[in-house]
Amino acid sequence: MKLKNGIALKAVIRIIMYSLFVVLLLGILVDGIYNDKLANSLSKMDRATYLWCVQNKTLLAGTAFLAIFAVVSFLVIRKTNNHLIQIINAMDEVLKEPEKEIKLSNDLVILESRLNNIRVDLITNQNKAKEAENKKNDLIMYMAHDLKTPLTSVIGYLTLLTEEQEISKELQEKYTKIALDKSLRLEELTNQFFEITRYNLQNVPLNKSKIDLSFLLDQLVDECYPMMQPRCLACVVEKPEHVYFVGDGDKLARAFGNLLKNAIYYSYENTQIEIQVEQIGEKIKLIFKNQGDKIPEYKLEKLFEKFYRADESRTSSTGGTGLGLAITKEMLQLHGGNISVKNDNEWIEFCVELECENE
Questions:
Q1: What is the distance, to the nearest Å, from the Cα of residue 155 to the centroid of all Cα atoms in its chain?
Q2: Closest alpha carbon to 309 in 323, 327, 291, 322
């Protein structure tokens, strides 16, 4: 709106200024310098016309001014139209060739700057979208491969159980257990695929209620115990007896569960995961710490991006989809909270901050 009004105001000022300048110049020439010469020439040519011009001097001056105003308006509007054509062409260039810098006339230097800023933003957004799409495609490719692996094992062991006529009970139990383990892994990978396809947390409603975060964390640790046991991990929770918060219990459980599972995936074997909960006034702080390979600073900044995995050497069979931390961040933001991460030597620490609502 300001830009449009600015262009219109400049056009009006130019029309008025140019018109006044031309009228003033003609007035000086006609009524000042060449007054006697013009009068004598017109009088000699036609005395009646001369007398009529003298009697209708005001009318002639008004007519001359209108003619000058019309000509000046035409020239200024044509120049403004040229500016509009430049702007339209520049906008087309931004869409068709965003890599090409926009150049406009000096009168449109402000708009030139804005269009170049839009062009840079467009390139940045296109690159981000392309990068996200590539990550998603790579992830799906890895997961498709990993889906095939446990499925092949399940089919193979079930085939052995079906076709082998004389098979010991011990082998039956062994093959059944392997097939069950592979089936559970297959279910997990299928759930991860489902996670990718439904990942969209915009406009997600919150079913808020009063939650005891201490009890919630105890539940999550118990649920994840089978995941920690094979790697000889322990989890210690330092917390008050009760920490109450008004929020969506399912979504908070999912957010904290993602942090705990992330710690399990990336912890050294035979180490301890630490969870600390602290409430100061209306603010609640939760810290999830684990020992693992140091993450470079440039990777720490990307941990909350969709489909990003700090350990790129891992396939989906040993880690998650790269969605867990992104989902955690968005779910915490839905609750008005935030999350940060830091890495000191072999300890990686995720810090969650929530603020209690006034009742």
A1: 43
A2: 322
